[in-house]
Amino acid sequence: MPINIPKALPARDILEKENIFLMEDERAVSQDIRPLNILILNLMPEKEKTERQLLRLLSNSPLQVSVDFMHTATYESKNVSRSHLSQFYKTFEDVKEDRYDGMIITGAPVEQLPFEEVNYWEELTDILEWTKTNVTSVLHICWGAQAALYYHYGIQKYPLPNKLSGIFKHRVMESTEKLIRGMDDEFLAPHSRYTDVSYEEVKTHPEVTLLSASDEAGALLMMSKDEKNVMITGHIEYEATTLAEEYERDKAKGLNIEIPSDYFPHDDDSQKPLNRWRSQAYLLFSNWLNYYVYQETPYEWE
Predict the structure, then answer these.
(1) pTM score, whole prediction
(2) Regarding the domain delimited by 3-294, which CATH topology (the fold level of the hierarchy) does it fall under?
(3) Alpha carbon distance 158, 31 (integer Å)
(4) Is 239 a catalytic residue?
(5) Which residue, among 119, 125, 141, has the nearest Cα to 74 in the 3D structure?
(6) Where are the domains of the chain?
(7) pLDDT tens digits, residue range 75-106?
(8) Carries keyword Acyltransferase (predicted)?
(9) Of 15, 180, 205, 218, which sits 20 to 30 A from 156 (CA to CA)?
């Protein structure tokens, strides 16, 4: 089934060329189907790129999905036009009386700051508290995952000596869990971050289940015991070239940055990297939509 997104959204043209099944509002309302309503809080600086990445993964499902985008009111991104935000994005004030079947909270380039020093932290905590009653299931990515672990479960992040960037092997630790049903016992996923959370603290926390981890990259995939919150410390939504673009950006800034691990063929940054995590990403998003959103959300919110 298709994703229902605004007709003028720039990501539409790219996704249509990939044969992603998209639907416009006019056609969606003509079908006697209750779509899944998904809210995406996009905290990434390059918002249009993140829109495309997430919409692509949400498309791989037999369910009809309707998507709203939200940005923070207390901080306005410098890498996206105001017209794009005003046309396609809402703020928390716009949605706080609404209910959503699912929500995605992205990463953000603020991980080296203490949570309380992030200029939209108070607004984000209001949103995280609101999800407890107004959203069926929340998927948190990278810094969004660290923020959720800290706010909901008191698990703090800590700085790494060097940026963790590259493609890492992860092992499945709870193979019977629905979220990772069908995934390989060992799979690849990208990471791009300067901070981490304690593997032992996650593993022993009474309210959190550790589903997948890496010897090099630590905990990747976690879920709350009540199955309400899913946390992914990596960027399984990334496209093949995203880490390369970040690497070139960091080099251009003069940062002392290492080449992403196991990413470029033969560690040659002149060669085009391959996407070796796509199937696992599609499966993870499909499982989340099916088992934790569609099968858990009420048909009509009270």
Answers:
(1) 0.91
(2) Rossmann fold (3.40.50)
(3) 49
(4) no
(5) 119
(6) 3-294
(7) 878 778 888 888 999 999 999 999 999 999 99
(8) yes
(9) 180
